[in-house]
Amino acid sequence: MKLALAGATGLVGSTMLRVLEEHHFPVETLMPAASPRSVGSSIQFRGESVTVQSLEATLAARPDLALFSAGGDVSREWAPRFAEAGIPVIDNSSAFRLDADIPLIVPEVNAHVLKPNDRIIANPNCSTIQMVVVLDPLNRAFGLRRVVVSTYQSVTGTGYKAVDQLDAETWNRLHPEQPKTVKRVYPHPIDVNALPHIDSFLENGYTKEEMKMIRETRKIMELPELAITATTVRIPVLGGHSESVNAEFRAIPNLSAVQNILRTAPGVVLRDDPEENIYPMPVEAQGRDEVFVGRLRLDESKENTLNLWIVADNLRKGAATNAVQIALILAQKGWIN
C-alpha cells in the first residue's frame, strides 16, 4: 500500500519508521511528510533514502493510509482533509481523542469498537495506553472500582528538544569548565530533578496530561463513571514511562489469581520477583513493544485494592507501536482501499 507518515522527522515519527520495518508492515510506497522547514530533506526506510514532502503534496498523491504524529494543530487541519478524501487516518495527537464519534483505540483492550467506515482513529496518550493494557484484564476478572495513578515520565515524551535540554544540563553538571548552552523546554531544570507538571495547568488544579489520563481511560475501558485520579511527573530518564497504580476492585480472591491473569494477558510481561530484585524498569523497557508490570501487592490499608508498578517505552507501545498495531488490524480486515 501507499502509506503517508505525517511528522516523519520527529521523535515519534522516526520511531514509527523503525516499528513499520520491524513489524514488516506491507508498505509499497512510503510518503513521509513534515513541516515546511523539513520538506526536501530525506529519511531512511528499509535501507533506502526517501524524500520528505509537504502534507499538501502527500494528500494529492492519494495514499491508502495515513499515520499522523505532527501535533494537534496539524491534525485538526489536515486529518479531516485526508478523511474526506477517503483516506483512513490514525492520529497520535490529542485532537480527536475525546470526540464521541471517533474511536480511541488500544488494540489489546477495545479493537472491537473499530468499524469499516472509520476515517479518523485516535491513538491514546502514552501513559493511558500502558495503564489500560494492564488494568483491562483485571477489570474483566474482578470489576474495577477506583484508580489512583502517579506517573514518572521520560523526557522523550516531550520530543528531541527536551532530550537536548537534559543532555546539556547533565553535561554542564559534569563539566562545569566547558558549559553548553541550555535551551529550556521545561520551566525548570530537568537534570537531577522531578517536575510535577506535564502540559498546562487547568482551572481545577490538574494538568491537561492528568485529565487526559482520566478521561481517556474511561472512554477506552467503557467505564464512564470510573473513579480515577492522576498525578503526572516528568523525570530525567530516557527509556520509558513508569506508573505507580493503586486500583480498587469489587473483589480480589488472592494475589496468585492476579498474577495468573497478567501472565497470559496480551501485550503484558509480568516482572515480579522481589527476592531476586526483579521488577520493571525503563532501562529494560526501552526499545520493547510490551507493557511490563510488577511490584504486585495487596493494599493492606484498603480491602480489594492492589498496588502495581507499570513500565513501557512511551515512544513505542505508548505511541508508534500502538498506531502500527491499529493499522495492521485495518489491513488484516481489508478496510484499507
The SSE string, one letter per element, is: EHEEEHEHEHEHEHHEEHEHEEH
Number of domains: 2
**Looking at CATH, which topology of the largest domain would you report?**
Dihydrodipicolinate Reductase, domain 2
Strand order of the largest sheet: 9-8-10-13-12-11
For the record, the CATH architecture of the largest domain stands as 2-Layer Sandwich
Shape: globular
Query: Class of the largest domain in CATH?
Result: Alpha Beta
| Strand portion | 15-25%
CATH superfamily of the largest domain: Dihydrodipicolinate Reductase, domain 2
Short description:
The chain has ten helices and 13 strands. The chain is 33% helix and 22% strand.
Question: Can you describe what's shown?
Answer:
The chain has 337 residues and is of the alpha/beta class. The protein folds into two domains: 136 residues, 3-Layer(aba) Sandwich (Rossmann fold); 187 residues, Dihydrodipicolinate Reductase, domain 2. The protein contains ten helices and 13 strands. Strands 9-8-10-13-12-11 form a six-stranded mixed sheet. Strand 5, helix 3 and strand 6 form a beta-alpha-beta unit. Helix 1 crosses helix 10, helix 5 runs parallel beside helix 7 and helix 5 crosses helix 10. It is globular and about 60 Å long. The termini are close together. The model has no long low-confidence stretch (mean pLDDT 97).
